Amino acid sequence: MSRPSFELISTEQVARILDEAFALLAHTGVRVSLPEARALLASGGAAVDENAEVVRLPEALIRAGLQSAPHSFTLYNLLGEARLTYGDDQVHFDPGSAAVNVLDADSGRQRPAQSADLLRIIQVAEGLPQFAAQSTAVVCADIPVPIGDLYRLYLVLLHSAKPVITGAFTAEGGQRMLRFLAGVCGGAQALRERPVAVFDVCPTPPLVYSAFAAQSLIDLARAGVPAEIVSMPLAGSAGPVTLLGSVVQHAAECLAGIALHQCAAPGAPIVWGGAPAIFDMRHGTTPMGAVETAMMDAAYAQVGRSLGLPTHTYLAASDAKLVDAQAGLESGISAVLAALAGVSMVSGAGMLDFLNCHSAEKLVVDAEAVRAALRLREGMHELTPTLGLEFFVGIDFRADFLKQKVTRQLFRAEQSLPSAVIDRGSVRAWEESGRLDTWARARLRVEELVAAYTPPDLPPAQAQELRERMAAEQKAVSA
Questions:
Q1: Are strands 351-352 and 101-103 parallel, antiparallel or unpaired?
Q2: Where is the signal peptide, in residue numbers (predicted)?
Q3: Which domain holds residue 319?
Q4: At 124, which CATH number?
Q5: What is the rounded average pLDDT of the residues 254-259?
Q6: Confidence of residue 361 (pLDDT cuts 50, 70, 90)
Q7: Is 352:321 a contact under the CB 8 Å cutoff?
Q8: 338 and 403, same structural domain?
Q9: Phi-psi bin for 87: left (phi > 0), alpha (psi -120 to 50), beta?
C-alpha cells in the first residue's frame, strides 16, 4: 500500500524554523506570569528577569524537555477501554470547541448555546465513527460560570464512550476538572495510567504564558493528564505577517511550554498543537477557513512531527455563517490537508463563524469530508496478486466486471461509502425523494443519529458516582 502525504516546507526550512525559535527563546525570551513557573525554569538553567517576568531559555533546557516528552500516548474511556493513540503516525478527528453559539436548525440563526445543545452534539458525534474523540464543544449559557468547564466535561463523560478533548477557562476550573476525573476514574494513579481526556492550554500571542496557562501546564504534567499546547499566532496582528514568521513564533511558544511542562514532570504526555490564523486586513477577522491558515497548520505540524511529537490543529472549520457552499469548501479542503499532513488530532469539525458557532448539521456534513480525507490518506490498496491482469481473464472485451465474485468481495474495501447526506443518485431519484439539498439531508441525518443514540454502558455505580460528584460541585457553587 502506498500512503500519500503532504509536506509543505523543506527539511531545511524545518531546521531553520527550529533554529530561529531556539534563538528567539534564548535572546528575547518568553514572558511567564506565574512565579512558580519561573522558578521551575530557573532550576533548569533559564535566566529569569523577575521584574519583567521574562524568562530566557537555553537550548539545552528545551532539548532536555523534548528528550523526555513521550512520542505517543493512548487515550481511554471511562470503561477503561483504549480508544485511540496520539502519535505513531495516526490521524484522528474530533468536533471543535468551545463555541459560544449554536446554529439553530429551525430559525437558521445563531443563538447562545445551552446544555441541551451540547448533549445533542455529543449524541450525534457518538454515532459518527469518523470522530475518534468527543469534545466539550460549546460553552453552555444556562450553566453557572464557576462550574461551566466541569459541567461540559461531565456531560461528555456521562453520555459518550469516546475519550474527550477539553480544557478550562480558569486555573481553578482546570484543577476542579482534574479532581473530578481522578474521582470517577478510580484515583489519581488510575487517571495517570489510563487518561480519558486531553486538556488544551493556550499561550497568549506573542510569547506570553499567563499565570493561568502556566499553572495549567504544571497541574496537567503533575497529574499525568495529556496537555495540548494550542499556540495561536495571528499572522499580521499577533504574529509576523509572513506565514513562516508566524510558524517560528508558534514553534517558540510550543518549545517554551514543553520546557516548563517537562520541568514540572519529566515524561508527562504533551501535544504540539495550535490554532493559528491569518489576520484579514479588510475585515479585522481571523479566518480559520483561509488556505493560508491551513498552510501554517500543515507547516507547524511538520515541525512537530520532525521532533517526534504528537500533533494537533484546528482545521475542518469554516468562517461561513450557514451550512452552505462556503462551509463545505473551506472545511473539506482543510480536512484533506490535515489528514495528508499527518496531524494526530484535528479539531474544528462542526464549527462556523471563526469558531464562534457550532452546528450538529455541519458536523454530519463534515463527517463526510473526514471520511473522504481518511480514505485518501489510506492510499491505494494492493488487494489482489496482480494489480489488474487477473480481472481480464475471460472478460472477452465485455464490461462484465460486476459479475465477478471478486467485485462483490472487494468493493467495500476499496470504496468508502458515504451516508445519505451525500447524494449520489440520479436526478430522477433526487426529485422523487423530495429534491432535498445538503442542509435538508443533514437535518434528517442528525435526527436519525439522535434517535439511534444509546448511552454508554457504564456500570451503575460509576454512573451514580458521576452524578453525585457533579451534584456536590453544583451545591458547593450555589452555597
A1: unpaired
A2: none
A3: 67-378
A4: 3.20.20.480
A5: 98
A6: very high
A7: yes
A8: no
A9: left
